[in-house]
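Exercise 3.2. Students should predict the tertiary structure of the chain below and write it as structure tokens, then compare their answer with the key that follows.

Predict this chain's 3D structure.
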Amino acid sequence: MNDRMAARALVIDDERALASIVASYLRQAQFETTESHEGVEGLRLARELDPAVVVLDLGLPGMDGVEVCRQIRTFSDCYIIMLTARVDEMDKVIGLSVGADDYLTKPFSPRELVARVQAMLRRPRGGASALSVANPTRRFGDLRIDPGGREVWLGDEMVAVTRTEFDILDALSANPNLVLSRRQILDDVWGPGWIGDEHVVDVHVANLRKKLEAIPSEPRYILTVRGVGYRMGQG
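Answer key:
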């Protein structure tokens, strides 16, 4: 990334020292970086700056990170990495369920955070691949997936999915006869250099099932192959 093509990053964290360190590392990696230290202001800046990535603390004054994330998702599909000082797994699940793409638990390495951000931004967006051109729509019963348009339809209704949710669905539907392990999905969606908890895949799959399945506990479209991973079902 050079200066002319620098991506915007927004760091929202009420720990000013930590926010400053994270912002410094992002600037060294050639990101155009802005800091905010409370939720309402951070949400305003997300609207004004249209960042490519938001580093968002879960515990914020004024408006917590979960609500900030929820509202950002109403107007932006930027990447969101949630930061949490809490060890409760439910906090991570809630963050991902409202649209965050990834999470880090404090304390963390700023270098790891920057590496994750860079890996996210290397993920292809928008343009149709050769596969998309040759097979523009994938059908599984009532479920339709358009790789070129990055749209998901269930019957006549378009389903709103996040970037990461679509990428997981895209990876599974491109290989409908294969079972993909968590690691394979991570390599395909997050990139082979991604380091973290592989169960992040499970949370995103659970979110997809809530949106796609009539009975999420009895899935028809995204099937679990115990001890291996996930594959597409025919609906």
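Discussion points: The first strand starts at residue 8 and ends at 12. Residues 125-133 have pLDDT under 50 and may be disordered.
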